[in-house]
Amino acid sequence: MIINDNNIEELIVDYVDNKLDSKSSQEFLNYIKQNNKYKDLLNFYVSSNEYTIIKENISLNNEFKNNLKHTTEFDYKEVAYYDKLAVLVNEKQASKKEEIAFYKMVLKDNNKISSAGIYANCKIKADRSITFSEKNKLKHKENNKILKMWISIAAVTICLLFGFWNIIKFNEKCFIEPVYKSNSKINNIREIAYNKIEDKSKNEIIINNTKISTKTILPKVKDEEEKTINDKLELQTQTTLIAENTNKTEQIIRQSNFKIKEPEISNLYAQVNEQNENLINENIDFSFIGTEAVKKIKEYKNKVDLGEKASLNPKICLSRNEEGKICKVGIWIGEKQISLWAK
Amino acid sequence: MNINEYNKCVDKFSDQVYRFLLKSIRNEFEAKDLVQDTFEKLWIKRKEIEMSKAKSYIFTCAYHEMIDHIRKNKNNTDLSETDKLSQTIYNQYSDIQEILQLALNKMKPEQRSVILLRDLEGYSYDEIAEITGLSLSAVKVYIFRGRLFLKTFLEKSHVLSLDDLED
Asked: Is B115 on the interface with A (CB under 8 A)?
């Protein structure tokens, strides 16, 4: 045996484990004695060997390992006819002839009864207690497309209705306030003849050095404003009907769509100037009415389709307060009214 | 297959697939992952798959996912540890199904799957061949050899007595 630095440690371990034969042990010990550097190493191993070491039962382990090994190393070529039949019968693949042959073999030999029983027990059974706990993670929520479609249609419809309603409301705001026939403040109506003239005045809206604001009165606000006028200002309304107020015109206005035509606007100018002339003695510059009225009427005309055939004769009425000053100028177009208020 | 049918498949087959995969790979978390992967594939392909063929598709997917998974992790498996564990269990348990599980662990993945599909789900040889992609004769051979192996393993384990058989 050749002993050198490469295999000395291996030999020490074998020596400690008593795996070296007597000849090898003698050689090993001689080598150790000749090399002092390994003496301590040997002492270490020998001292370690003094402790109690539980050694494995090699024969028992080998037997167990062999048992396991044999089960995996199966020579299928040497399978007996009985085994073939047993498998086929258990798999329900055997013909009647094979089945009869199998049971005959089993009945003849008692050992084959237990063997057949083992075959019958070779089936893997499902453990029903084992379940997949995360089913909800796998599932997908159902998207109800029809429901979604109806919701979207409803939403769009609501949006459209809201849009139309807003447009209608906006247009209503643009409408001129209707004048009620039962208005008690309308009195002293008189008819005045007038001529058509052109209004080229660009004067500011001033009455008795007071700026005038224009606004459209909403139906709800109108009542309040009328009440305020009655309670606080105690208006004495002097209304002057300037326009031609024929029954025909009124019927047309009420029964059909109407349209303000240029002649009517010019007609209005004429009325305003007529009024101006009448009010000269009161030192009131009333020329603003023409400008504002035309502006309002044009707005009105632009926003509402009044039809083509209908015509309109605008009217102007003045409202005076207790002191006799003009506080409101109303322009009627059919049943609608534009009001110009003194601030 | 619509969403409703897909959800029914989850309810109906997820337990079975999970048991099949768990028996095959013996790892709860990996089996759950594979079940999820399988149903993810089913979800993607749901429009092409009829409800009647869903189970077959699910098991085919699960089988191939499992084989891929085993091949990927083949190098990572510490065989010595598995053997030690098997021996311990072998010495401790006497339940037939547990012994059979040990025997299954010693089979090749393909053979194990064939036996499990046959026993757990009751698939015919043809259906197993379709699911696994093996030929019909290969399936027959795998099952025959598997049965012999299981029987031999049970005999060697000495856990079966005549009393057990009578039960």
From this structure: yes
Place of tokens 């092409």: B48
Interface of A with B in 16-75 (CB under 8 A): 64, 67-68, 70-72, 74
Helix (H) or strand (E) holding A58: helix A58-72
pLDDT at residue A88 tops 80: yes
Q: Does any CB of chain B come closer than 8 Å to the CB of residue A132? A: yes
Residue A91's pLDDT is: 85
Angstrom CA distances, B106 to A64, A90, B25, stand at: 16, 22, 12
Instruction: Find how far residue A95's CA is from the centre of its chain.
Output: 67
Query: Sorting pLDDT into bands at 50, 70 and 90, what band is A35?
Result: confident
Structure tokens at A209: 């050095």
Interface check for B117 against chain A (CB to CB < 8 A): the answer is no
Model pLDDT for residues B82-92, shown as the tens digit of each residue: 444 444 444 44
Chain B hits for A74, Cβ within 8 Å? 145, 148-149, 152
Quickly list H helices, B26-124. 28-44, 54-72, 79-92, 96-105, 109-120
Q: How far is CA A237 from the centre of its chain?
A: 59
Single out the residue of A12, A231, A142, A65 nearest to residue B84, CA to CA.
A65
Instruction: Report the residue of B6, B10, B59 to disrupt the A interface, i.e. the one with the largest count of A CBs within 10 Å.
Output: B10
How far lies B7's CA from each of A136, A168, A309, B14, B56, in Å?
9, 50, 69, 10, 16
Quote ipTM for the complex. 0.75
**A132 to chain B, minimum CA–CA distance in Å?**
5
Phi, psi of A316 (to 5 degrees): -125, 135
CA distance B37 to A4: 59
* Gap between the Cα atoms of A229 and A179, Å rounded: 16
* Whether B98 contacts chain A with CB within 8 A: no
**Contact check, Cβ <8 Å, A142/B15:** no
Mark yes or no for CB contact B10/A124 under 8 Å: no
Please, are residues B18 and B32 in contact by the beta-carbon 8 Å criterion? yes
Matching residue, tokens 């047993």: A86
Least confident of A41-55, A151-165, A237-251: A237-251
Residues 45-84 of B with CB under 8 A from A: none
- Which of A264-273, A278-287, B37-46, B62-71 has the lowest average pLDDT? A278-287
